[in-house]
Amino acid sequence: MAKQYDVLFRLLLIGDSGVGKTCLLCRFTDNEFHPSHISTIGVDFKMKTIEVDGIKVRIQIWDTAGQERYQTITKQYYRRAQGIFLVYDISSERSYQHIMKWASDVDEYAPDGVQKILIGNKADEEQKRQVGREQGLQLAKEYGMDFYETSACTNLNIKESFTRLTELVLQAHKKELEGLRTCAADELNVVELEEEASKPQGSDHSPKTCWC
């Protein structure tokens, strides 16, 4: 039986607690928005398949807790990420300033060549804005990242940002893709992920596989 996707890899959402990482994830995967939710404990994930340049990509998107007490756990997930969203809240100057710390963690724990995008979330809360768009653009430029302002509430730039990070990961694996284009779908290699010591709770527990 042919696979329903060609490649599979992991994206990671990181940033301070309360910046809206879980809302971004739910909007992208389920097209749902829940303004009130319980903060993520440890790590959770969802799956979604999209098509980019004729390639069916199965994305395993990991939502990490922003609280400091969980960061020892969440940093373990950096190592096998192919793409990372660094998320701040445009109505929180503090969350913006903390992006430098999150970026430092990525440099220390994520693999070389991991693709990154900076996200300024809650763009619908213009009246509460503390971080200008130009500030986000400048910070993204300093770190060599693409930048999007998003809103899980209004669905602003949700599909666009996730698709863009997927494109960047695919471009980074161009050589592997050249091989994929010459193979039949049922012959493509998908590498199995190691079983985690503790499985995330309350999410779509699809088979853990990853194209690395």
UniProtKB/TrEMBL annotation:
Belongs to the small GTPase superfamily. Rab family. It is found in: Cell membrane. It comes from Pseudonaja textilis. Its cofactor is Mg(2+). Its EC number is 3.6.5.2. Keywords: Cell membrane, GTP-binding, Hydrolase, Lipoprotein, Magnesium, Membrane, Metal-binding, Methylation, Nucleotide-binding, Prenylation, Protein transport, Transport. The GTP bound form of RAB15 interacts with REP15. Interacts (GTP-bound form) with MICAL1, MICAL3, MICALCL, EHBP1 and EHBP1L1. SMART domains: RAB, RAN, RAS, RHO. This is Ras-related protein Rab-15. Pfam families: Ras (PF00071). The gene is RAB15. The lineage of its organism: Eukaryota, Metazoa, Chordata, Craniata, Vertebrata. The small GTPases Rab are key regulators of intracellular membrane trafficking, from the formation of transport vesicles to their fusion with membranes. Rabs cycle between an inactive GDP-bound form and an active GTP-bound form that is able to recruit to membranes different sets of downstream effectors directly responsible for vesicle formation, movement, tethering and fusion. RAB15 may act in concert with RAB3A in regulating aspects of synaptic vesicle membrane flow within the nerve terminal. It comes from the Eukaryota.
